[in-house]
Amino acid sequence: MHTVIASLMVLLIGIMAVFTATDGLRAFTAEGARRLRVMERPVAIPNATLIDIEGNAVPLASHQGKVVLVEFIYTTCPTICQEMGSASFQVMEAVRTRGLTEDVRLLSLSFDLDDDMPRDLKAYGERHNADERIWRIMKPATPRDLKRLLELFGVTVIPDPIFKYQHNAAVHVISRDGRLVRIVDIAAQEAISAMLAEVVRP
Amino acid sequence: MTVNVMKVQRVFAAAIWCMLALPPVAAFLEGRLLSHVLVQLPALVLCGYVLGLSLRTRVARASDIWNRGGATGIAVAIPAAAIWMLPRAVDASLGSAWVELAKFVTVPLLVGLPLALSVPRFGPITIGFLKAHFVSMALFLGWLFSAAPVRLCNNYLADDQALVGAAWLAIAATAMLGWTVPLFFDSHQRGTPSAIASNPKRGRPYAVLRNHA
Q1: Beta-sheet pairing, A104-110 with A135-140
Q2: Which domain holds residue A7?
Q3: Which ipTM was obtained for this model?
Q4: pLDDT value at residue B208
C-alpha cells in the first residue's frame, strides 16, 4: 500500500514535471519553445545599430511604425540559403501584392560580420531582386549588437565544416510598437500570409 | 556487502562525476550531440547507479515498504529520463549554467540511483516490460533523429543529429537481438517438444515465470 501511494505521488510529480518542461506538451525543442514564448509573451526589442549596403549606420528603431520582418543570413551561404533568399523574395512579393509596401519592412541581417561587407550585402540583394522599398539587407554594426539581437531572438549560430554556419532560420516579426510578437518559418507561405493578415492590419 | 565495497562504489561514483564535471571534459563531450546524449548522459546515469548500489543494503528496509517491486523507483526514473531526452533540455543545458547543474544533479540522483535501488526488486514481467519499453523508445528516437526534416537541437549540426539517429537504431537493434536471441536457446524456455515431454508442467508460461522469480 505504501508503495502504491508513493509511486502514484511520484508519478504525478513526474508527469507535472514533464508538462512543465514541455510547456504543456506543446514544445519539445528549443525552437518550438522560443516560438511559443514570443507568441505568449512578446518581448520589446532594444535598439541596435545596423550597417546598410552603403556602409551607413542605421538604428533598428528607424523602422518603428512599420511591421519589421527580420531574418538572419550570411551571404556566402551556398545552396540552402539561396532557397532562403527566394523564400524571402516570396515574402516580399506577398507584401507587395497585398499593398503593404508602406507597412512592412523585410530585413535580412547578416551575422557574418567579418566576411559580409556592405558590397556583399548589396550583391546579395541584387542577386535576389530585392525591392529596396520593402526588403533591406543589413548587418549589425558591432559584435555586441549582433550578440544582443541573436540572444534576444533566440537564434543560435554554430560553425559548420561545409556550409560555414548552421542556424535556426525563421522570420522574426516585430510589431509596429517594436515588440517581437511572432516567429514563423520563412518557407511556410500560408503561415506568412496568416501572419501578415493578423499582425499588419490592426 | 562489506563496508569496503560500498566505500569503493561511492568513491568510484564521485570520481566519475567529478571527471564529467571538469570543464574541459564537459565541453568536449558536449561538443558533439552523439557524445552528449550517448556518453555524458549515460555516464551520469552510471554515477547514480553505482552510488545506488552502495546504498542498497542501507535502505533495504525502507525499500521493502516504499519500493515494492521497484515501482516507486521506476516512477521516478522514467519521467526524469524522459525530460533529459527532450531536445530542448539538451539545448537548454548548453545555454544555462543552472540547467547544466540540474542535469548533473538530477540525472544521477533521479535516474541512476532509483534504478539501482529498484532493479533487484523487479519481477520478470517488469523486466520484460522495461526491455520492451527501452527498445521501442530507442527505435522512436532513432527514427526521430534520422528522419526529422529540421534540426531538433539548435546547438548541433544536422549531420550530428542523423548520426545520433543511426546510433539509437543500432542500440535498439542490439538490445532487441541481445535480449531475444538467447531466449531461443535458453534452457529455461521449456517450449521445445522434448522439454515439454520430459517435464510437461514447465512448458506452461506461468511455470516459467515462477521459476524465474
Answers
A1: parallel
A2: 2-39
A3: 0.85
A4: 47
